[in-house]
Fold:
Amino acid sequence: MVVFAGKHLRHPAVIAGRLRHLQGNYKLFGRIMAQQLAGHVTAIHGE
Structure:
């Protein structure tokens, strides 16, 4: 764990890139979940 952290501390650009990538994944995941939820709610209230 210490070695892992040390490696990353030497490459801040790598950390920034991975965080940005993770953030993008979470935004995409959130958008998909929101669409699915909206679809379920519409289906329930539509009936």
Notes: Helices lie at 2-9, 12-46. The radius of gyration is 19 Å.
